[in-house]
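Problem: given the chain below (142 residues), write out its structure.
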Amino acid sequence: MSTRIIKQEDAGRKWHLVNLEGKALGRAASEIAKVLRGKNKPCFATNVDTGDFVVVVNVEKVLLTGKKLTDKKYYRHSGYPGGLKIFTADRMLERKPEEVIIRAVKGMLPKNKLGRQMLSKMKVYVGGEHPHAAQQPQVLEF
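Solution.
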């Protein structure tokens, strides 16, 4: 049995649509990360980006269970002394709801150039409308 070398051109990229209305944040983020990495395909390789594109809609309606709305914290630092900003999850959902799912998925991808390339294939939109109808995304259920 010989080792098969996978190329990016052989990946056969598809477009998937994920509606986050009423879905738990962590469970949705892990499924999206699997599709972005290409782990749902038989041609998966850790060193090649074989994943598909994912369009995420209704991010403002994502579900956070328990006391995560008040207890979960997001941090941002300006780089200057005393420049640490701390936001709770409910404040982040009202100011930048797309940032919540981006950070959750980013934490589940590899921490290198390949991970950044995979994250760029995720398109996140507030509300139910998106400009990717021409790509005919298939609804991803989980």
